[in-house]
Write a structure and sequence with these properties.
The chain has about 300 residues and is an all-alpha fold. Helices cover about 75% and strands about 0% of the residues. It has 15 helices and no strands.
């Protein structure tokens, strides 16, 4: 990977990691479901008018939009609003690699190798350690919501693989159009119109800045650059850079939000990142076995004659 592309890969990981701190700040300005709806609205408009028509079937756009946009981000934002720390959220979400492997095995018949199974067990051990750490200091219900968000992310990864979009930016922008109305409806139903209106009336530069960051920087720029890197390099070269996301997530949360990072959380981070790294390893290519062809009949007769 060229230095410029290497820099872009690390930059995207940093953008996605800091995103959790920005979401935490944004939740001080908006109810979680309304914030998620605004995020996708800003990501879709005006970009949808510049990326061209969808390049995959609408069924995949709608499916990914509902599973990734409504379920994954809805659960994540609600979980963080309920007390899940930003840094820990960036770490726990990495368990999506395990859920992706499980859903792919069930839906696509992909059998994980022994190394990937080991990685899944190590990552699950990391989740258990993180749960113990969070149970000692925070609400386990919020922790469970973020784990559920990771499961939805894993399912959306398999749906995206089935869609096989040639242009990830085009795909992500059109996917962003789907969750807006469902999230707004859920916000009005669960969070109430009075709370939503109060948040919009009190909108200031900081609140607007969080929407711009999570929409344009994290979604449009982040996924656009990530898709560019995947078009120029093998997925096995690009994917490991996502393991830097919790590093930036936990660091930025500690720096800007004052979140403590306990020794137990560092242990959970080591297990989770190590397990996800093993889970993300590409399958080993087994060279085809040498095929022995029978000797032609004439050659066989000549060998028999010389032996006689």
């Amino acid at each position: 990977m060229r230095p410029a592309h290497l820099t872009l890969a690390v930059l995207v990981a940093a953008v996605w990691g800091v995103n959790f701190t920005v979401v935490e700040i944004g939740l001080d300005h908006f109810p979680p479901l309304l914030f998620s709806a605004l995020r996708f609205l800003a990501a879709a408009l005006p970009a949808v008018f510049f990326v061209g028509r969808p390049k995959v079937a609408w069924k995949w756009i709608v499916a990914v939009g509902l599973v990734l946009g409504v379920a994954k981000f809805g659960l994540l934002f609600v979980g963080m609003d309920a007390g899940m720390p930003a840094g820990l959220s960036s770490l726990v979400l990495q368990i999506q690699a395990v859920f992706t492997a499980v859903v792919a095995a069930a839906a696509l018949g992909e059998r994980p190798s022994r190394v990937r199974l080991l990685g899944m067990l190590v990552a699950l051990a990391g989740i258990a350690v993180a749960a113990v750490d969070e149970g000692a200091s925070g609400p386990l219900g919020a922790f469970a919501l973020v784990v559920a968000a990771a499961a939805c992310w894993g399912a959306s990864n398999v749906l995206t693989r089935k869609a096989a979009p040639a242009d990830s930016l085009n795909f992500m922008v059109w996917v962003s159009t789907v969750p807006v109305l469902p999230l707004l409806a859920l916000s009005l139903l669960l969070e109430g119109p009075s709370r939503d209106l109060a948040a919009l009336r009190a909108l200031d530069w900081q609140g607007a800045g969080t929407v711009v960051y999570v929409a344009w920087i994290t979604t449009v720029f982040g996924f656009g650059v990530w898709g560019f890197l995947l078009r120029h390099h093998p997925a096995s070269t690009v994917a490991p850079f996502s393991l830097l996301v919790p590093v930036f997530g936990m660091s930025s949360a500690a720096l800007f939000l004052g979140e403590p990072v306990s020794p137990l959380r560092w242990c959970a981070a080591a297990l989770l990142v190590g397990g996800v790294a093993l889970t993300s390893l590409p399958p080993r290519r087994v060279p085809p076995a040498a095929v022995r062809f029978p000797a032609p009949a004439a050659t066989t007769r000549r060998r028999a004659g010389r032996a006689g």
